Amino acid sequence: MLERNGRFLPVGVSLAERPLAREGRALGAFLEKMGPAAPGAVLLHVGPETTRLAPGIWAVPWWRVL
Fold first, then answer.
1. 38 CB neighbour count, 10 Å cutoff
2. Chain centroid offset of residue 27 CA
């Protein structure tokens, strides 16, 4: 998880090339609990595409971030 000025960005990791929405459940639960302090989440994965798993949760290839 990343934090800056009281705002949070939870980050998950998946070995899937095409993560499914269920892999973002824990991130979604965190977003619900934190409310406006955590406006979105990222699930890093090994595949080639950036996709939206759920509202506010994005699956992003790890190499696009690092």
1. 19
2. 6
Q: For the purposes of burial, counting CB atoms within 10 Å of the CB of 51, is it exposed (0-12), middle (13-18) or buried (19 or more)?
A: middle
Q: Using one digit for the tens of pLDDT, what is the confidence trace for 13-44?
A: 999 999 999 999 999 999 999 999 999 999 99
Percent of the chain that is helix, strand, coil (3-state, to 5): 30, 35, 35
> How are strands ordered across the β-sheet holding 51-54?
11-13, 41-45, 57-61, 51-54
Round to whole Å and give the CA distance between 64 and 24: 19
Q: Is the pLDDT of residue 66 over 90?
A: no
Rg (CA), the chain: 11
Segment 8-17 shows an average pLDDT of 97
